[in-house]
Amino acid sequence: MNIRLIVVKLSIYTFIQIRKLLNNCYPQLLATCGFFLLCGLVLLLRGQNPLEFYTTIFVSGFSSFDEFGSVLFNTTPLIFTGLAVAIGYKCGLFNIGCEGQLNVGAFAATLVGMYLYLPSILLVPLCIGIAMIAGAMWGAVPGILKAKFGAHEVINTIMMNFIAVALTNFLVTSVFQEPNQMIPHTSQIYENARLSRLGNYIPFIPKTNLLNDSFIIACVCVVLCYIFLKYTRWGYELRLVGNAPDVAAYGGINPGVVIIWVMALSGGIAGLAGVADVMGYRYRFLDSFSSGWGFTGIAVALLGRNHPFGVFAAALLFGLLNKVALDIELLLNVPRGLFLAGQGLLIISLVCLERIQKKNR
Question: 115: domain CATH number?
Answer without folding.
Answer: 1.10.3470
